[in-house]
Structures are given as structure tokens and as C-alpha cells.
Amino acid sequence: MVLEPDRSAAFRKQVAAARSADPTAWEGTRHLVHPTEWPVTRDRLLKAIAASAVSEDIKRHLTAAFAKDQPSTGRTSYPDVLKQLTGLPTTKGLRALCIFFGVRAASVAKWLSPSVSPATVDTFLQRHRNPFDLLLDQVPASVLDLGAGDLSFAEELATRYGSSLAAQQRPLILHCLDRLDPRSQLGGPLHAHPLRLSRLRAMPNLDFRFYGDQDMFALDLLERDQRLASRYLIVTCWAPATPTFAYEPTRLSPACLTEELRRTKGDSRQVRHGKEPALEVLHDGRSLLFPPWKFDIRGPLALLELMATRGALCLLGAVDSQVFWEILSQLVDDPAMRPPDTVFSPQTLPAVFGKIYHHLSGLPLGQTCRLADLAPLRSRFPSVLRTAGGQAASYRFREVTIQRGALFEGMPASSTARKFQGMAEETPPWFLSLVPELQETT
Asked: Which domain of life is it from (predicted)?
């Protein structure tokens, strides 16, 4: 069969236009042509071709090519036909045809979600000192690290658990997000070093992904392309950023926040640093440059909701005192511990938290306590985020465990946690283990 040059050229233009019009869908076609997925994709593509409105001669060419495509030769058969009709090499040509004929990723999730119950996670934490050991006990061994920074925690985690999971013939799934743009000149030591990235990508038995220049609250594109799982066994966040999570915007008014930032950080303005935007802060007579979003306030509720809806276990490490007390005010049930327009400080904390403040302030390094032993936990959290479908999340925490300190024996930690050891003027940070329960929306 010979296809007329003019007709094949016109079809190539249509395919090229469909491909360029939907770059998100184009990225999502990669796994459709993987050898393990191709037989199913091929059948779906044949059905879509038969039902399409393209000319009969093009249908015949495509159907004949795919019909003669034998399992022994796989998807590399008839490259000349694909080249003629798409203008692309074989694999890309198949991907382009998937786009043109509307064959999208199947609804089956790429990443296995944990099925472990909150009660099981709670029981595990009561019996084990190291919450990360849950990776050895439950399937899948998956971790989402928010604000991954220099990837020091990721490397420690992979080193500590990679071989043990390999002995169980299970991979470690480790996905890391950070808002810093790897190409930026701002951020200094918080950037992921290329050598560390290379080591992580080369580690055996590690399914590692790193997404830089990625806002943790804007994950729609990664979700649609299945570059992230919908839910992980563990979600972590080390040294939650200040001032981003140090103030809760549902508790503090915009005017209060603006004045507090000016008082504590200094005057600020948006500027250009070379070819990129930056935030200039005038502090103690010095001009400091930060990424332009440095003073964006999201608050603990946004972070807690993101973690609760993403993980069976939520771990917050190296939490400084300012962020810790703001988080704590949201975890307890008593609304008096969320006073409007009251900035938490050493002067206001004792009055707001009372016995809780005095008990936790006296907690020795390395010691643990259950927050429920100090005050009733909040039974339902307000949603401040929206899912892709526009539905509000409904959740609570079944258990909240508090530990004092930055480093704990046998547990991986970030470089920020290790820096606390040399900060004599800083009060010891906190480590929080939270077991979320998702609730039915009403």
C-alpha cells in the first residue's frame, strides 16, 4: 500500500499540531509506550483509529502496521510507516499517535498507595522508637520529602534503608520537592548539589525523583502526569520555613502580618538580581537577597493539610520554636490557644498555652510526650487548600507525638537539623510525629 505524499503530509501536520497543543498530555504518553504497557496501549490505539474520522487510506495503513506488529518485534515494527505518517522516530511517533487519537493514560495509578490503617500506624509508633522503621514494616516503602533543600536527608534515608529493603526485595520510593529553582543564584547552600543528585540517581533499589522549582502547594501538573503518587507511606518536612509557616493567616490579619514582618525582618521590596526576580530585605543595616517568595505566608494549616492528605504518617523534623508553637496552636482543640492577632513570643506564650507551655519547655532533650496527654486534640481541621476537583479535605490527627531535639539515634536527619548542634543561642528544636485520619466530607 502506498499513501499519497500530499495526504500523508497533511496528516503529519495534524499530528504535529495535536502534539504541540497539549505538552502535559505528551509527557503523560511516556509510560504508554513502555514495553510492559504497549500491548494494552496498542489495542486501545487500534480501537481509537477505527472509530476516528481520518481518511480510510490512513486508517488502513495504520491498522495494517499495528496488526502485523508481532510480540517478538514489539513496538519497533514498521518504523517507515510511522515516519511517513508522523515525521518522527518510532517511539515518539507512537506517542504522537496516542495524543492525536485521544489515547490517554489509563486510570490505574502508577504508584501504589499505602493501605495501612491509622490504628496500625499508631500501634507501630507506640512499639518503635524510630518512626522511619515503618518503611521496613509496610508496603509500599514510599516517602515524599517536602522542601528537600540540599537533599542531605534524602541521601541519609536512602543509605540507611536501601540495603534493608533490598534484602526484602522491595524498592525505596523517594520523591523530593523544593521550591528553589536549581538555576537560581539565590538560596546558597540550600541548593541540591549535582554530585549528591548523581549519587541518589545511581543508587540501586532506589526509585528517586527530584522536582526543583516546585511549589509544594501547586502539584496539579505532577499529579496529572503521575510523576507523584497520590499518597505515600511517610511524608516529611525538615525545618519548615520561616516566616512561611511561622504565622497562621487565618489567625493573624494581613495588617498584623505586614507589621510583624517589617518589625522582625526589616523593610523589603521586590527587585531584580541579574536576570531573576528577588526579595531585597534591609536588616540591621545590611541588604539581603532572597528568592522572591521568601515572605509568602502559608501557615501551619496549609502544611498540615497537605501532609495529612498525602501520607499515612507525617513527620516534621528540626522545627524551630516559632514554627513549633504556631503549629501546636492548631493541633489542640481549645480555640483560646489560637488568639486572633496575637503574635507568639516568649512574653505571650506562657499566657496563651499555660501548663502546656511549662511542661513542653521543660521537656529534656531526647524525651517524648503525647500531645493528647496535655490537651485534647482538635477533632476536625478547617480546609485551606482545594483539591483538583474543588472539594475540601476533611481530616484530623489520631495521634501527635512530640520529641525535643534535632538528632535522634538511628534516625536520618537533614543538614539543617545537624546545624542546630552548633547553634548555642538557638533553643533546641522539635520533632513531631502525626498520624492523620481522613474523614468523610459532609
From this structure: Bacteria
